[in-house]
Specification:
5 strands; mainly alpha; five-stranded mixed sheet
Length: 658
């Protein structure tokens, strides 16, 4: 014993930093699972009676979605009451634990009854291996400190400001804080209970639940074989996987959209059989409302499903149709209104920053800048509107202006194969497929309208919410290709071979990204947070660390062409829309002295210029940076700003001269 003690006293198996890092990871996972468990219990308490006929896994997932949405509303109420403190967050946890105590046995019984789908054949086994491996790699990536672009711009910046202020605020010019905040409220809850690393895990959980619900939807509508392929198609979208590992909102919206579609289909079955339908209509309304609480772009979901509901009820009296629409609209409006109220209280515009050219930090020029009408494909290349899905599939690239996402090569052709397999569907299946196509089509038309109107909406991520329905129809089409089989050519075998090879290549790509990211050292405490962020964020994090460590605590740093401010520990004013300089010259003209005087009046002490970003903006030529704008900036640099620090011509920190 003495010898072993002496040996490990000298050769310590772990360090304090390692234990601290590992503890942070384990605690983040525990808080994530705890929040999810509370959401599941709350949803089970509210909607257990509606979901009694579902299998245990689907019942748990749908309940969790309802419960987490309600928890977001609770955090919003705490924020509006000025009670966003760790103590109040833990009180809420204890209160929910006490209130939901009687529901816990039912939830535990559901969890014990969960039976995960088992692959039955070789192709399904390969799909299972692909999906399980991909999810494991994504989970380990979600354990790392946040580095995602939008996370650092607003998804986490807002919650950090809420926690620091102890209430819901809109303290700086960050228009994205006017978006619905359902996901951000969950991130805020996680931050209050533990820290920032719970946020990516929460989003990862939403992605897993969306996957489960997509499988359940496919199995319930077109059979288990179609469900396996649908799940694999959903996981073949590389950008969806990368977003699941970040503190984003797209997986949350995907879940609620799929939940709304699933609820509609189950309501339709109950209606046609003459069974009670109220529960499914209420769940449909809640799903639509929660989707609206995630993103404004969810507007297509209630429109499409509302049309489908009216069509199914076309033989019913008008009063009956109105009652059903009211049962959907009531819960939806009830859970959407709090976000419009929050906007109205903090900005003066209930749908900030849209429609009304008023509100804090907003005016008509900025509304034009944010919309940029007339720059879309309808003006620049109308023929591209027709081939937009092909472009998004082939050239779409994450982090660029080329649709800003990689959706993989399988989703679009799988959906297109539905034409070939349509004759293999029964009449009932065709009716279901038509409703799903309408569900997809309305959002697609809204997306195309955006592409046609402005170049700023050339983003495939706005369609991610309907990818559950796309995957289900694509999986069904692939499974029904036996209709094309002939003695000379086994079409369905050939298609499965192509899918298997494609998934193998995608898995290799995902694994390669995993090793480039190298998330395990920081997750296990072997790499410190600052070292990891420096490795991933480069000069940006180096500049921010310098600002945090060197500048006085009362400094106010104005950013130019840099929208990310999450890691700032002093007062940083991000250039969220990359319009700060042009808006300044629009309002004050090109007088450098007037501009610097205006900044001093605002308390600005320093300016952080993202030189590389500014150069890229000028070279691209999309933003209207005129010669006068550039000359005014040079005059400001030459006569009113003193260089405090420069980082390899990438970032420059200036101090306002006396």
């Amino acid at each position: 014993f003495s010898m072993v003690t002496a040996y490990f006293w000298v050769h310590k198996p772990f360090s304090l930093n390692l234990l601290r890092g590992l503890w942070d990871t384990l605690a983040s996972v525990a808080v994530w699972l705890g929040i999810t468990f509370l959401g599941a219990a709350l949803g089970r308490r509210l909607a257990g009676a509606w979901l009694h006929a579902e299998d245990a896994l689907t019942r748990v997932v749908l309940s969790t979605g309802i419960g987490l949405g309600l928890i977001s509303l609770m955090i919003l109420i705490l924020g509006l009451a000025g009670a966003l403190q760790p103590a109040f967050a833990w009180v809420l946890v204890l209160a929910l634990g006490v209130i939901l105590g009687r529901s816990l046995p039912d939830l535990l019984a559901d969890l014990r009854a969960v039976r995960f789908p088992q692959p039955q054949r070789g192709f399904q086994r390969w799909l299972f291996i692909y999906g399980a491996t991909t999810l494991c790699l994504t989970f380990f990536c979600a354990l790392t400190p946040p580095t995602g672009w939008d996370s650092l711009v607003y998804h986490l910046t807002g919650p950090r400001m809420f926690v620091e202020a102890g209430r819901i605020v809109h303290p700086i010019d960050l228009p994205y804080l006017g978006f619905p905040q359902l996901s951000e409220m969950q991130f805020t809850f996680g931050m209050l209970l533990w820290g920032e690393r719970t946020a990516p895990l929460l989003h990862f959980g939403w992605g897993v639940m969306a996957l489960v619900l997509t499988f359940s939807l496919g199995r319930h509508t077109f059979g288990e074989d179609a469900a396996w392929v649908a799940a694999a198609l959903l996981l073949s979208v590389p950008t969806l996987l990368s977003l699941m590992a970040r503190a984003y909102v797209d997986a949350t919206l995907l879940f609620y959209a799929t939940s709304a579609l699933y609820s509609f289909i189950r309501w339709r079955e109950a209606y046609r059989r003459g069974h009670a339908e109220t529960g499914w209509l209420l769940l449909l309304g809640l799903s639509c409302g929660f989707a609206g609480g995630v993103k404004y772009t969810a507007i297509g979901i209630p429109i499409a499903l509302g049309v489908s509901l009216v069509w199914v009820s076309r033989h019913t009296e008008v009063a009956g149709v109105a009652r059903r629409l009211a049962l959907v609209a009531g819960p939806a409006i009830l859970v959407v209104l709090p976000w419009t109220m929050e906007n109205w209280l903090t900005t003066g515009n209930p749908v900030y920053p849209f429609f009304f050219h008023r509100g804090v930090y907003w005016d008509e020029w900025r509304a034009w800048w944010y919309d940029r009408p007339g720059t879309g494909l309808a003006r620049t290349a109308p023929w591209r509107i027709v081939i937009a899905p092909l472009e998004a599939t082939v050239i779409g690239t994450e982090g660029t202006s080329l649709y800003e996402a990689i959706i993989g090569p399988l989703l679009l052709p799988a959906l297109a194969l539905l034409v070939a397999g349509w004759s293999a569907l029964t009449r009932a299946e065709r009716a279901l497929a038509n409703h799903i196509l309408l569900f997809i089509g309305v959002s697609y038309i809204i997306w195309l309208n955006g592409l046609a109107r402005t170049a700023l909406l050339l983003r495939t991520r706005f369609l991610f919410m309907v990818f559950g329905g796309v995957a289900v129809l694509g999986g069904t089409a692939i499974e029904r290709l036996q209709v094309l089989r002939s003695p000379r050519l086994d079409i369905d075998w050939l298609v499965r071979a192509v899918i298997s090879l494609t998934l193998a290549l995608l898995l290799f790509s995902t694994t390669a990204y995993f090793f480039r990211l190298n998330p395990l050292p920081v997750s296990l405490g072997l790499e410190q947070r600052d070292a990891y962020l420096s490795r991933r964020l480069g000069w940006y994090y180096t500049a921010i660390r310098y600002v945090n460590k060197t500048l006085p605590s009362d400094s106010v740093v104005l950013f130019l062409w840099e929208p990310r401010s999450y890691h700032c520990e002093v007062d940083c004013r991000p250039d969220a829309l990359l319009d700060r300089w042009l808006h300044t010259t629009h309002v004050l003209g090109h007088d450098a002295q007037a501009i610097v005087d205006h900044w001093r009046e605002q308390g600005i002490t320093h300016v952080l210029l993202y030189q590389t970003g500014y150069n890229m903006i000028r070279e691209a030529g999309f933003d209207p940076v005129t010669l006068d704008d550039a000359a005014a900036l040079r005059e400001l640099q030459d006569h009113h700003l003193r260089t405090a620090k420069e980082w390899d011509d990438v970032y420059v920190l200036y101090e306002l001269t006396p």
